[in-house]
Structures are given as structure tokens and as C-alpha cells.
């Protein structure tokens, strides 16, 4: 799980979020959108943010609402990634507040490690 992620309040406009992202040294692949209580309401790919109406409110342009809890096992996470063709999956706590993200690269790396372990047995 990656603990470094970008989240924004769902009431901000795309223009405000793009201005916020311009101050970062890196550009995240996706942005987690939260409500006023910091609870996850969805995810938006950064590339989609660039191409949308700049006055659009983030909570209205969310492209994905999938997430997982921290205690979910790897096979369930793999199923979510494959079923919905995700590149990134937010991880939330019991209050649905974001605590990290899982990238497709991490999932593929985990699969590769498991295969290597099986080959050495």
C-alpha cells in the first residue's frame, strides 16, 4: 500500500485542484475525492481532470467509486482490480477515510513474488 496519495475536498472545482497539483513536485495518477468529513466519495484520474470543464465540481466528475478496507486479503483485491480494470484502488479505514492506495504495479509485483516463491519450492 502506498501511503503518499493526493486527496481533495469534493466541493473544489477542477481549476482549483489543478492549481493545487501544479505546486506538487510529482503528478499523481489519480486523485481521491472526499466529502467535508474527509470520507472517500470517489476517485478521478488526473488525465480526466485536465480534460474536463474547469468549473466542474470534483464530486460531480468522479470517475470511480471503488475502494477497499485495509484488512481485505490479496485475492479479494486482485478480484477487484481484474473485474473493474483499475489502475489504482483507494484503501480506507473503518470510517471510510483514505489511508493509502494500491496501484496496479504493486498488485502485479505481488503476483510475481508469489510465482517466484512457488517456483523455488
Q: What do we call the CATH homologous superfamily?
A: CBS-domain
Top-tier CATH class:
Alpha Beta
- Rg calculated over all Cα atoms: 16 Å
Query: What is the molecular shape?
Result: elongated
- Could you name the ranges where pLDDT drops below 50 across 5 or more consecutive residues? none
Q: Give the domain tally.
A: 1
Question: Would you identify the CATH architecture?
Answer: Roll
Straight-line N-to-C gap: 27 Å
- Counted by DSSP, the helix tally is 4
CATH topology: CBS-domain
| Structure class | alpha/beta
Average pLDDT for all residues: 93
Strand segment count: 6
Q: Order of strands across the widest beta sheet?
A: 1-2-3
Largest sheet: 3 strands, mixed
